[in-house]
Amino acid sequence: MIIKNQKTSIYIKKEKNITSNSFLFIHGFTGSHESWADIRRHINNSSIAIDVPGHGKSTFVDLKEDYTYDDWCTDIFLMLRQLKIDKINICGYSMGGRLALIFALKYPSYVNKLILEGTSLGIEDFDQRTIRRDEDRVKCQEIVTSLEQFNKNWEKNQLFKFQKERNSKGFAHQRQIRNDHDPKQLSKSLYSFTVGSMKYLGYDIKDLKMPIYLINGKDDSKHIKVAKEILRLNHKSKNFILNNAHHNVHLENKEDYIYTLDELI
Questions:
Q1: Would you give the DSSP letter of residue 242?
Q2: Cα angle value 120/205/187 (rounded, 5°)
Q3: Residue 190: Cβ within 10 Å count
Q4: Tens digits of per-residue pLDDT, 128-165?
């Protein structure tokens, strides 16, 4: 189904019998709701998966109009209200984890449990944030110029180096998802959700009262370091480090990922 808001149309893949123990899955940059297909098929709870604006079937109404993190929170709030959902478990990967965390900070009463996979708190240093924002602006243009070439370069990221080896079928599926995006929509999504435009969340996460579960691949030292910082800041958080996985744990080690999610609920 598609829910139309003022600035976006958001695609939702929803199962029946959604409860407070159901999951809302939010994919990472260049992913889609289909990125969670294997996980959703095998977990013990019902779930919802969405396409983040600019990805898959979710679109920005006007590519020239500003879209902010506050707009994102409003869209998800309105979606939950329209679906008559008062509380849900939110699981976000990478960029989707940042979006999940930002929503949880603004609308904590709607979040039962927060699961963050390979998620950062943003960039604390203002100058470094500016540099990152400028770098992502260049990537926005690269996406529009040639999505195929951008995706080839994107797959060379060291965070993804073991994906094809560990799950060749899942890697091929993710590659197809990337190549099927609308370049202008995807570019707008990166422009809107660059970590360079995001407030650093390290000062805020300590205030969250719901359980926070951090999932990291053992090979992802960068985000394990972030997880340790979250553990220090929020005593209701808990970290799960899974073997045979780097950044995208649910793709590289889906069996242990599914087991972990089932144990959390």
A1: E
A2: 40
A3: 19
A4: 999 999 999 999 999 999 999 999 999 999 999 899 99
What whole-number distance in Å separates Cα of residue 216 and Cα of residue 223? 7
Q: Is the pTM higher than 0.85?
A: yes
Q: Are 237 and 213 a contacting pair, CB within 8 Å? A: yes
Q: How far is CA 161 from the centre of its chain?
A: 19
| CA neighbor of 251 nearest in space, from 224, 219, 221, 222 | 219
Cα–Cα distance for residue pair 217/224, rounded to 1 Å: 8
Tens of pLDDT along 84-120?
Answer: 999 999 999 999 999 999 999 999 999 999 999 999 9
Domains of the chain in sequence order: 2-264 (3.40.50.1820)
CA-to-CA dists, residue 14 to 18, 72, 73, 162, 185, angstroms: 8, 19, 19, 31, 23
Distance set, CA 171 to CA 70, 176, 203 (Å):
32, 9, 36
Distance in angstroms (rounded) separating the CA atoms of residues 242 and 250: 10
**Residue type for position 138:** V
